[in-house]
Every structure is written in structure tokens, then in C-alpha cells.
Design a protein that fits this description.
Number of strands: 25
Strand content: 25-35%
CATH superfamily of the largest domain: lpxc deacetylase, domain 1
CATH architecture of the largest domain: 2-Layer Sandwich
Shape: elongated
Radius of gyration: 27 Å
Oligomer: single chain
CATH topology of the largest domain: Ribosomal Protein S5, domain 2
Structural class: alpha+beta
């Protein structure tokens, strides 16, 4: 499991802020595990801090601003992108003005600071923010989508309203890719925007030393473009920084067309809302906790790892699943082969639910057949050694169909195939059969959590 990281030592850098134009000194300092990235205003009494979290975003016009009460920090996205790209989870950013120094308009100087400071692993695990289901946002000409993916990938298209300098870039984020392919991409604007920006009190510290200006078909800069498609790479840099306001590294594929800070942050809010819905669904289907084991009690042989070709009797099933009477819906596993598993449930007249479902006409409830599919799917996910001691939370069911009644004396065969397993999220297709005939089927989704 990946660990959280902070920096080994403090580092400092001075310059001017892009929008405020004030002289500022910035320091990166180590921070304890689970504290995240925090901005500290040392020019104000008491050194108030603002956590780099979505709930603290107060403004997203031309840059991302964080605020708490009367305290604010403007243009945080480039600094946050550097922390995200370099894999730093916990740090304090000290400022003696309301805005970090813009440097050359990219995140290259911040990345150099983090390289100089060095990274230190911490004892706590690094949990990713896993995208479970696709999300799409459409605002004017801006389209932002996110899809499940086993790492972080960003695909972006950038252009102005006239379609000038339309650029496309796609990148899978690693530390090396960040340093080489993104960190040096500079901020830019179009010449006709300058009057508006100046009139609204922005880019007071802007110059060709820290921004690229596009005028008609000409690119005004003090040096050649650092990448052929530098503009879209900077848009990806902004996306990375804004999404680090989730508080943890993202695991998903972002597809963006003409992104903006406002929509970047809105997508992050939608991701948080999705996670809350999934958490609520998990709580609704929470199984009983696994029985605890004393420190001196030895772990059963074979517990926590179930290989291909394995069969499990009822005792081994009980060591894998936390479920107990009257809610254990699988008696044994007859086969495991790759991403497929088959289980058996002997439906007897002694099942407690037959007392009320229905008197004189006993039928196994369809939802319990669905539960049997979910439990067998859980065994398939829990077979890996790295998932030992975890619980499989049943989250949702789709395409559910009940075709024939199941009665006392029937032997329910449960066949499950894993169709997707990314991180902690699993999706499986299952069928229940009696005498070779399908009696029910469903597509179930569940999540693994620490027990």
C-alpha cells in the first residue's frame, strides 16, 4: 500500500504575485500525516491557516481563490498542481502576502523547490479518490467528464472562442511525466483580454516574464514555446491543481474541452457528491463485522488467499465472509477459475423466511437470491491476499430479473463473473440456477473497505 509523503526540509522562494502584484516570500514546510496541504498567512496576526479543500473555494474567475472569513489566498492552483504532480500529501505553504509568487507563470519553480526539499514517506496509508461512475458537466462551450480508470489520466482540448490555437493533449500522470511534460507549461492569455483584466484589478504583476500573450496569430513571449502545445498542457496543469482540492490524489480519467477553474471545481464537487451517495449506499447494506481474533490466536491456514481451482466448504466460507445465520446465502464454493466463481446454496424447509414468505406456499425471496449473488461475488474479490481482512459492501444492483420461483428442496447454483475490478470497486454479473435453468440474474456493484 502506498504511504503518504511530506517534505524533508523547509524551502523558500520570493517573487511577485500575478494578480495582486505584491512582493511575496513563500515557504514550503513539512506537515504531519493526514493534515493535507494548508496555506498559512504569516503576514496576519496569529498566522491563520486555510486548508486546500473544496469547501474553502471562494472565487474561480481567472484563478482559484481560497478563503476563510476575511482571510484569503489567491491563485493557488499552480502550487497545488506541483504538490499533486510530485506526490506530496502533507505540507504547509507559508505566505507573507495574499498570493504565491507567480515565478515564470508555470509550476516549474515550485517543482524545483520540492525536489530540493526532498520527499519523506509517512506511516499513514495514501488513499486515492476513486471514480466509481462516469460524470459529465456541460457549461456553455465547456465540457468536463470523468470516467473510472485505474490511474490518473487527463485528456484536454483547449481553444479560444474563435478556435485559435486549438490543441489536444492526453497524459497519464506520474512524477516523471509531471516534471518533464507539464510542470514548465506557462499561463497564457489573449491580447484582447488584457484591457478587461487590468480594469478588474487583475494581472497587476503580469508581464512577458511570467505569461504568454497571444495576439492574432502571433505568440508574444520572452523565449520560444517550451512545448509545441504548451497552452493545452497548462490547462491540464490547472485541472490537476484544482482537483487536488479533493484532499487526495484522484484515480480516474478526466476528459475536458475548454476547461475553466469554475468547472474544474464544480467537477470536484460532483465527485464528492458521488462519493457521499456511495457511502450512503454502503451504510444501507453494511454486513455484520467480522469476528475479532486475539493477538495470540493463529490465523487459519489458507485464510485470506483463495487460488484458482479452489473449492471452499462451509467452514472456509465462514472464514472468508462476515455473514452469519440467518443471512449467510452460500453453503460452499465448487469452483474458482480466473474471474469466474460458482457457489451452492441448499434451500431447505427450515429457512426462517419461509414462515412468512409465504405460509402454505413457501418461496425464496428474490432479494435473497440477489444477496447470494453479491456474497459469492464478494468471495471472488476477497480471494486475493491483499484483500484479506476487508469487507465487501453491497452497493447497487442493475438489470435485475427474477424468472422462476425457488422452493424448499431446490439446490441454488450461483454463478458469478467479475466484469470490472478497479481499486476498491468491483462489478459482477451473476445468475442463480435450479436444475440448470436460470431463476434470477443481476449486475451487482460493491466496494471493499477495511474491516
Amino acid at each position: 500500500m502506498l504511504q503518504q509523503h511530506t517534505i524533508r526540509e523547509a524551502v523558500r522562494f520570493s517573487g511577485i504575485g500575478l494578480h495582486g502584484g505584491e512582493r511575496v516570500t513563500m515557504a514550503f514546510l513539512p506537515a504531519p500525516p493526514n493534515s493535507g496541504i494548508r496555506f498559512r498567512r504569516v503576514d496576519l496576526q496569529g498566522g491563520p491557516e486555510i486548508e486546500a479543500r473544496l469547501e474553502n473555494v471562494t472565487e474561480t474567475s481567472r484563478s482559484t481563490t481560497l478563503g476563510k472569513g476575511n482571510v484569503k489566498v489567491q491563485t493557488v492552483e499552480h502550487v497545488l498542481a506541483a504538490f499533486a504532480g510530485m506526490g506530496v500529501d502533507n505540507a504547509v505553504v507559508e505566505l507573507d502576502a495574499p498570493e504565491p509568487p507567480i515565478a515564470d507563470g508555470s509550476a516549474r519553480e515550485y517543482t524545483r523547490m520540492l525536489e530540493q526539499a526532498g520527499a519523506v514517506p509517512q506511516g499513514e496509508p495514501r488513499e486515492s479518490f476513486v471514480v466509481a461512475e462516469p460524470i459529465e458537466l456541460v457549461t456553455g462551450e465547456t465540457v468536463m467528464s470523468v470516467f473510472p480508470h485505474d490511474r490518473l489520466r487527463i485528456t484536454c482540448t483547449s481553444a479560444d472562442k474563435q478556435g485559435r490555437y486549438t490543441q489536444l493533449h492526453s497524459i497519464e500522470l506520474t512524477r516523471e511525466q509531471w516534471i518533464r511534460e507539464l510542470s514548465a507549461a506557462r499561463t497564457f492569455c489573449f491580447f484582447e483580454e488584457l484591457e478587461y483584466l487590468f480594469k478588474n484589478g487583475l494581472i497587476r504583476g503580469g508581464s512577458l516574464e511570467n505569461a504568454v500573450v497571444i495576439r492574432d496569430d502571433a505568440v508574444l513571449t520572452t523565449e520560444p514555446l517550451r512545448y509545441p502545445n504548451e497552452f493545452v498542457r497548462h490547462k491540464i496543469l490547472d485541472i490537476l491543481g484544482d482537483l487536488y482540492l479533493l484532499g487526495r490524489p484522484l484515480q480516474g480519467h478526466i476528459v475536458a474541452v475548454k476547461p475553466s477553474h469554475a468547472v474544474n471545481c464544480e467537477l470536484a464537487r460532483q465527485l464528492v457528491a458521488q462519493q457521499r451517495r456511495l457511502d450512503a449506499a454502503m451504510q444501507a447494506f453494511t454486513p455484520p463485522p467480522a469476528p475479532s481474533r486475539t493477538p495470540d490466536e493463529p490465523e487459519a491456514a489458507g485464510e485470506g488467499s483463495v487460488g484458482d481451482g479452489t473449492t471452499l466448504d462451509i467452514e472456509q466460507v465462514l472464514k472468508t465472509l462476515p455473514h452469519r445465520y440467518p443471512f449467510l446465502m452460500v453453503d460452499r464454493i465448487t469452483s474458482i477459475a480466473g474471474n469466474k466463481i460458482t457457489g451452492i446454496k441448499n434451500v431447505t424447509a427450515n429457512e426462517p423466511y419461509f414462515q412468512g414468505h409465504f405460509p402454505g406456499h413457501p418461496i425464496m425471496p428474490g432479494v435473497l437470491q440477489l444477496e447470494a449473488i453479491a456474497q459469492v461475488a464478494g468471495i471472488l474479490m476477497l480471494r486475493q491476499a491483499e484483500n484479506a481482512r476487508r469487507l465487501a459492501y453491497f452497493m447497487s444492483a442493475e438489470e435485475v430479473k427474477w424468472r422462476s420461483p425457488v422452493r424448499p428442496g431446490d439446490v441454488l447454483t450461483i454463478q458469478v463473473e467479475m466484469v470490472r475490478a478497479r481499486g476498491k470497486i468491483g462489478k459482477a454479473k451473476g445468475q442463480c440456477l435450479v436444475d440448470g435453468q436460470v431463476v434470477s440474474e443481476a449486475l451487482v456493484t460493491f466496494m471493499l473497505i477495511e474491516s
